[in-house]
Amino acid sequence: MKREEKENRRKIIVSGARPSGKLHLGNYIGALKKWVELQEQYRCYFFIADWHALTTGYKESHQVRENSREMLLDWLSVGLDPDKAVLFRQSRVKEHAELFLLLAMITPIAWLERCPTFKEQLRELQGKEIHNYGFLGYPLLQAADILIYRADAVPVGEDQLPHLEITREVARRFNYLYGRILTEPEPLLGEHALLPGIDSRKMSKSYDNYIALSDPPEVVKRKVSMMITDPQRQRRRDPGRPEVCTAYRFQEIFNPPEVERIASACRTAEIGCVQCKEILGHKLVEFLVPIHEKRRELEEKSDYLEEILLGGEEKARRDASATLEAVREAMKI
User: Considering only CA atoms, which of 165, 160, 149, 121 is closest in space to residue 17?
Assistant: First the structure.
């Protein structure tokens, strides 16, 4: 069987991320690690969601281009391969926008208003001017991003299921009105590990509690030294509780061979928090070495980075155009 035929028979995966600049360990554990695995098994479309970045950050549009470059560097540094997955910028494939427009004609406003993330962000971002159509309609743009490639599945965590359900509802409504054209994507649920920030809250740039994939060793070790540990462990001789310790959560993910020994030593006060953090800092630096080496290799290759995106956008545009042509024909426009 020819390689192209094999490729066409693989199931399709679509996912994307807003360009927010350099990525952190939480992004890697929560999504990128899984993406690297998926590209070996599926036809994957991974896009830089630069239009989505404008829904809440339209005043910072001048940052999008540089943030997109930084995100691509991190994607490639952790192992995403343009020969195995289609990597592209959302805004360079205009078919996303046309399908978004057509789907907007058949989507009830109530479907968008009931989206849990819409309500949560309105509360979290109080004081920010986000009462705009783009913000209300971003779940529908997200639906267009997925449906334009007739994705079989989308990698999501359980907290993202309501978003995907909107996509599935929109596909069902379109197919009911115009015939079966769009594919209802299934959720690809997996173990989406949540990595806390150094202050035990969710790792986020907005909280300034993150460890970037590109942080140099001295910065990584300094941030690890600031991690929240067991608040009841006031003295070195006090027994600790690993289950409430942020540093221990990192040990579980990045140092599994030693995690049981560290937990036991913590509970019996054989090691203190400082020593535990020193072990963790060393492991994180060790983990990041190949990522840093790959990033340094790529940083000076601006033309190569642009070639990757242009090549990905050509592939994405070809496949998106085929879906859009079928949509136009079904709608008789």
Answer: 160
Residues 10 and 159 occupy one common structural domain: yes
SS3 of residue 148 by DSSP: coil
Indicate the pTM of the whole model.
Answer: 0.92
Q: Tell me, yes or no, whether 229 and 318 share the same domain.
A: no
* Structural domain boundaries, residue 29: 3-195+301-331
> Looking up tokens 């066409």, which residue turns up?
8
Q: Which ranges of 30-158 would DSSP assign to H, the alpha helix?
A: 33-38, 50-57, 64-78, 95-104, 109-113, 116-124, 133-147
CA–CA distance, 149 with 109 (Å, rounded to integer): 24
pLDDT confidence tier of residue 1, bands split at 50, 70 and 90: very low
In a domain, 206, yes or no: no
Task: Verify that 189 and 221 share a domain, yes or no.
Answer: no
Query: How much of the chain exceeds pLDDT 70, in percent?
Result: 93
| Domain assignment of residue 203, yes or no | no
Per the CB < 8 A criterion, the answer to whether 55 and 79 are in contact is no
Structural domain count of the chain: 2
- Rounded CA-CA distance 204/202 in Å is 6
Q: Nearest to residue 47, comparing CAs of 18, 70, 26?
A: 18
Q: Which amino acid, residue 10?
A: R
